[in-house]
Amino acid sequence: MIDYARVKIKAGDGGDGVVHFRREKYVPKGGPDGGDGGRGGSAYLVANENLTTLMDFRAKSVFKAKDGEKGEKNNRTGASASDLYLEVPIGTLVKVVDRVHKREDLVADLTDVDEKLLIATGGAGGKGNFRFKSSTNQIPLQFTPGEKGEEKDLILEIKLIADVGLIGLPNAGKSTLLNSLTHASAKVGNYPFTTIEPNLGVMDVSSLGVSYALADLPGLIEGAASGKGLGDEFLRHVERTRLLVHMIDPFLADAVKSYKAIRKELEAYSKELSEKKEIVVINKIDLSEVKDEIPEIKKDFKKFKVDVLFVSAATGEGIEALKKKISEVMQTIPKPEKYKASLSKTYTLATLPNKRMVFKGKPNRMDF
Ligand SMILES: Nc1nc2c(ncn2[C@@H]2O[C@H](COP(=O)(O)OP(=O)(O)OP(=O)(O)O)[C@@H](O)[C@H]2O)c(=O)[nH]1
Ligand SMILES: [Mg+2]
Q1: Both 8 and 30 in a single domain?
Q2: Which residues, in sequence order, are bridge partners of residue 10?
Q3: Does any ligand 1 atom lie closer than 6 A to the CB of residue 211?
Q4: Which domain holds residue 99?
Q5: Which residues pair with 280 in a beta bridge?
């Protein structure tokens, strides 16, 4: 589960200033000409749409930008080091560990492609002895060392971002649906918990010229909100989706009962989650047992004012209508706000989710 990493990031130190005197033929006492040191490289995080895990930050935990070069003779400033850009997946939360106050401060939520965050500023170069020359200091031996580059201990955490979350009991056909709505090829299996980490896919709605990122999530079971089954980690994924597609397999268990079981978990997890818009989808209508039940199921859901769509993720029946419905509803949901974050402000973790989540799988594309 490479969704979490602790790393130390260090900017480069500035190069030292140098002490040097001109030595020229026929000029016995050349003046001071020691140049300044170059600036150390700064370190940035950059959000990259093609990455999905923090694996690179697990293999290595200290990242350092290059130091500036020291000054040179002839008043030449040493070369500045290039900056270090560390790529992280979109949806990475960045926390700075404050050891002194024993606190973790959320400083950024990298949600946009190529979004850049300055983590540690490179140290300025030191002064060469040329700078210390004055009428009373003709032969200056002073110089200053380069400043140290900043150093930060970070916690990186991915919080999946998708427009639509596919939820439901295990085996309902969520992965099959993802595959039929997008070009994803999520693993499908006739047993519960085939999916243990979210799968992503992009659904193109060419008639509207838009596309939505869909996340197929592991199955939820009763008690998930309090950690049962694969636990509440999966509800956490759902937090950053805008719309839920709730899939039900009426062949497996009574449709209304299944529906209620999942709703209960959403409500137990958070008010925000339970208030998300939802499209309820009854799957597997290619099975005659299910087809025969359609009028009955419709009636049952009508009792508590829930509209349902009927599909077969396997044969594609009803999928176009579902696609249309998803894009219609999506048009009515505003884009979510970012975690309010900036480097100048600090936030205590008390109000923030602090558990890890799981996120793996290659997105075909992620446009938000
Ligand atoms: N007959 C029929 N079977 C389906 C349909 N959709 C999915 N299945 C089957 O149902 C089983 C479970 O499908 P998955 O897509 O893996 O279900 P899931 O909800 O992703 O399951 P988990 O990842 O385990 O939670 C597989 O055997 C699928 O082939 C459908 O529309 N009709
Ligand atoms: Mg699955």
Answers
A1: yes
A2: 64, 151
A3: no
A4: 4-158
A5: 246, 308
